[in-house]
TrEMBL record:
Keyword Zinc: no
Species of origin: Triticum turgidum subsp. durum (Durum wheat)
One example of a Gene Ontology biological process annotation: intracellular monoatomic ion homeostasis
Family note: Belongs to the SLAC1 S-type anion channel family.
Keyword annotations: Cell membrane, Ion transport, Membrane, Transmembrane, Transmembrane helix, Transport
GO cellular component: endomembrane system; plasma membrane
UniProt-recorded name of the protein: S-type anion channel
Subcellular location: Cell membrane; Endomembrane system
PANTHER family for the chain: S-TYPE ANION CHANNEL SLAH2, S-TYPE ANION CHANNEL SLAH3
Membrane topology annotation: Multi-pass membrane protein
Transmembrane regions listed in the UniProt entry: 49-72, 84-101, 113-131, 171-192, 204-223, 235-255, 261-281, 293-316
Gene3D superfamilies referenced in this protein's UniProt entry, alphabetically: Voltage-dependent anion channel
GO MF annotations in UniProt: voltage-gated monoatomic anion channel activity
InterPro entries noted in UniProt: SLAC/SLAH, SLAC1/Mae1/Ssu1/TehA, Voltage-dep_anion_channel_sf
């Protein structure tokens, strides 16, 4: 027998919905301030309005998710143990970092304590998630690697970007180094397509665009750390630009599945590469780079408008934006973590996630619980 919370309470990935508006606010702020796009004469009010809208959205989303934590804590706990959803726990802190980065008054006037407070949860998540990638049995990277893992990397680069803008030096370099090291490992693991890697269902294919986010944000972070868009920043930018083009031309990879909130995964990477292109055009200033900056910024903005319109249509007209989320449906037996991975590897576009159950709170509940790292290692040794 299964019982489940209301679909809107379980399916809403409210941790990451406010990330894109802040990046858009940063994009328009950059278009206003960079020499390469000064000819656009963007009014400061545009970025200010977007920043306040983003702040309001962040407050709404935060309250929504806090209510989810209070009333459906078991669902939140399942998300933290899910191989895809756990990566989105970085999103709120990335959003807050962009919130501080896009504040209307100069960033370097903000007290450094704000940066320390925002980076502390990211550092804790780094230790938790990266440690599992390295040493856990069922949660090691070769088994759980998927494009959404890039969110676990991007937070380090955004933190380095903001820290450098605030006048910090050593800690931004530290987080950049940690993020870059794990980005290289993740990039190689995903490119190898190991037989043990989990395969995303087709409905989640938009998260492939997160391939673009990490190198583009890293190029901006290194630009702020070094003080110029030097060869290191260009190397990272060229990687992001190549990945962007290689994904855009693969139409079949992003065709043939219905709209869902996963489509928001298109927006953040597209805006990030547009931001990096504007900075690149200020360093390599010519007609081609200016056209690239203008074109990619326009594409990113139109993508957000289209996805937002589709979200409103499916939410208020068709009413099918929040299908029942079977990944956290409550049943009486809980399968092991390895079964979740096996299901994600074999599921099609119609079934996205495995039904996960709560334990029986009695003396026999431990038999149905998730296997911990020591149990996984024992099975591997046997």
């Amino acid at each position: 027998m299964t019982t489940s919370p209301p679909p809107t309470a379980t399916s809403l990935p409210s941790k990451d919905l406010s990330l894109t508006p802040f990046v858009q606010a940063m994009l328009w702020k950059t278009l206003q301030s960079e020499p390469s796009t000064a000819f656009l004469r963007v009014h400061p009010a545009v970025s200010h309005v977007l920043w306040w809208i983003s702040l309001a959205l962040t407050v709404i989303v935060s309250i929504t998710y806090l209510l989810k934590v209070v009333f459906y804590f078991e669902a939140v706990r399942r998300e933290f143990h899910h191989p895809v959803r756990v990566n989105f726990f970085f999103a709120p802190w990335i959003t807050c970092l962009f919130l501080v980065k896009g504040v209307p008054h100069p960033v370097w006037e903000i007290h450094h304590v704000v940066w320390y407070l925002l980076m502390a949860p990211i550092f804790w998540l780094d230790i938790k998630i990266y440690g599992q990638w390295m040493s856990s049995g069922e949660r090691r990277l070769s088994k759980v690697a998927n494009p959404s893992n890039h969110l676990a990397i991007v937070g380090n680069f955004v933190g380095a970007l903001l820290g450098a803008r605030m006048g910090l030096r050593e800690l931004p370099i530290f987080f950049f180094a940690v993020g870059f090291a794990h980005y290289v490992v993740l990039f190689v693991t995903l490119y190898q397509r190991l037989p043990t890697n989990m395969q995303l269902p087709k409905d989640l294919h938009p998260v492939f665009f997160l391939f673009v986010a990490a190198p583009s944000v890293a190029s901006m972070a290194w630009t702020r750390i070094s003080g110029e868009f030097n060869d290191g920043a260009k190397l990272l930018y060229y990687v992001s630009l190549f990945l962007y083009v290689s994904l855009v031309v693969r139409v079949n990879l992003f065709w043939g599945f219905r709209f869902s909130l996963a489509w928001w995964a298109y927006t953040f990477p597209m805006t990030s590469v547009a931001l990096a292109t504007v900075l690149y055009a200020s360093e390599v200033d010519n007609l081609v780079t200016r056209a690239m900056a203008l074109g990619l910024s326009g594409i990113a903005t139109m993508t957000i408008i289209v996805v937002l319109a589709a979200t409103m249509y499916h939410a208020f007209v068709r009413g099918d934006l929040f299908p029942n989320d079977v990944s956290i449906t409550i049943t009486k037996q809980r399968p092991k973590f390895s079964k979740i991975l096996a299901h994600l590897q074999t599921c099609g576009s119609d079934v996205k996630e495995l039904v996960v159950s709560i334990p029986n709170f009695n003396s026999n509940s431990k038999q149905g619980a998730y296997s911990d790292d020591s149990d996984s290692n024992a099975r591997m040794n046997n």
